[in-house]
Design goal:
The protein is 38% helix and 18% strand. The chain contains 15 helices and 16 strands.
Length: 400
């Protein structure tokens, strides 16, 4: 396979902490390792940031703006003129747009004006988030914007088959599934830390419930807190640990002052937090994938989640985790109680979860991503598939 010049446009990238940033970094580094030249275009995160320039990677830092409510995250500003000048000097073989914000839209416009092939990712359910911030009336306009954005691309990559089906039902075209992977060396049971558990006030035999992710309304964390309160009536030494930060932190602390709020964790510290839990609760119903699910499974944890996104694809109920039907909070609470009451069962579920995660290494995932980029660069993108249903269906309802 000939090496490509890939312009990779994203509005989030490490050290920002979220699933899109983590996945994007894996793809960028994976393409470089396979001999492709990557031009990484992203917003400048700190005033002192310096663009990285090394063989195989040219980083271009562009103006950005803090996202309201998420001071630690930035979105790009419109930059069509800058991108036109940059790509006229050196044309990429393909432009890949990972996010649909102002910078992503500028990249799409510039690429089309220059006749460059474009692929994109659908990574975040912005339309679903609108329900959790009191602007549910914007859901349809947001969906219309996303549909228009992605249908102008040669190919849109999605992480799961159910999401592909839901988007197709709403009029999205040229969709292809490329899953996300997990670093099973970084995340694993061997990172369990008795010292860390002691900091949480948990002895070896005490049950620790864990959650990892953004502390925000769309993550459904109040349901995890309800599970904790109910279970604590039976297990007085039960602990709940929430890893992450976000706009709902103060409200969650008020709702559950006995929980441990561990803040943002990265690297080995994050792996140690996962491995030191006993049961992982993932109450979100707005994910496109849910990296935390596979990181928890790789860490050898039984996961209680909704039948949705990565959990719905990877968990076989009762074998390697537990799934509640969408929108059934009572079922979620019941499953959490069942798992909390049986340590031997949790151990079996966790071992099976680890085995499932071992098949999700990044090498094969990057290979699939690379193949789609080559396809788009050669003009061999998937044909348009017209929706069989009206284009205003709710993207968050499961495919039938």
């Amino acid at each position: 396979m000939d090496a490509l010049r890939v312009a990779f446009v994203t509005e989030t990238y490490p050290p920002e902490v979220n699933g899109v940033a983590t996945t994007t970094k894996q793809f960028v580094e994976g393409l470089q390792a396979r001999g492709h030249a990557v031009q990484l275009l992203r917003p400048r995160q700190q005033a002192a940031d310096a663009a990285v320039q090394r063989p195989g990677l040219q980083e271009v830092l562009l103006p950005g703006l803090a996202i309201p409510g998420y001071a630690q995250l930035r979105m790009g500003l419109p930059a069509t003129g800058t991108l036109l000048r940059l790509w006229r000097r050196q044309r990429p073989d393909v432009v890949h747009v990972a996010t649909e914000g102002p910078l992503g839209w500028s990249a799409l416009r510039a690429a089309q004006r220059l006749g460059l092939p474009v692929s994109s990712d659908f990574r975040t359910n912005f339309d679903a988030y609108s329900r959790h911030y009191g602007i549910g009336w914007l859901q349809r306009p947001i969906t219309a914007y996303l549909r228009r954005f992605h249908n102008r691309c040669g190919c849109t990559l999605v992480p799961t088959e159910p999401l592909r089906q839901r988007l197709a039902r709403s009029g999205f075209e040229r969709l292809h599934v490329v899953p996300r992977g997990v670093d099973t060396g970084r995340f694993g049971p061997a990172h369990r830390s008795p010292a860390l558990r002691a900091q949480w006030g948990a002895a070896a035999d005490d049950l620790v419930l864990g959650c990892v992710g953004r502390l925000a309304p769309e993550k459904g964390l109040l349901l995890a807190i309800e599970a904790f309160h109910r279970l604590r009536g039976r297990q007085a030494r039960l602990r709940l640990v929430l890893v992450g930060d976000g706009p709902q932190r103060a409200a969650l602390q008020a709702a559950c002052p006995d929980a441990v709020f561990a803040g943002v964790q990265q690297g080995h510290a994050l792996a140690a937090h996962y491995a030191s839990f006993d049961l992982f609760l993932f109450p979100s119903q707005t994910e496109t994938f849910g990296n935390a699910t596979v990181e928890a499974m790789a860490s050898g944890l039984p996961v209680v989640a909704f039948d949705h996104a990565a959990a719905g694809q990877l968990i076989s109920p009762g074998r390697n985790g537990l799934l509640a039907p969408l929108d059934d909070g009572a079922a979620f609470l019941s499953l959490a109680a069942q798992a909390a009451g049986d340590a031997a069962w949790r151990a079996r579920l966790g071992e099976a979860a680890r085995q499932t995660a071992l098949a999700l290494g990044w090498d094969s995932v990057v290979h699939g991503f690379e193949a789609r980029l080559v396809q788009v660069a050669r003009g061999e993108a998937l044909p348009a598939v017209r929706p069989a249903l009206p284009a205003d269906v709710d993207l968050n309802q499961p495919a039938r």
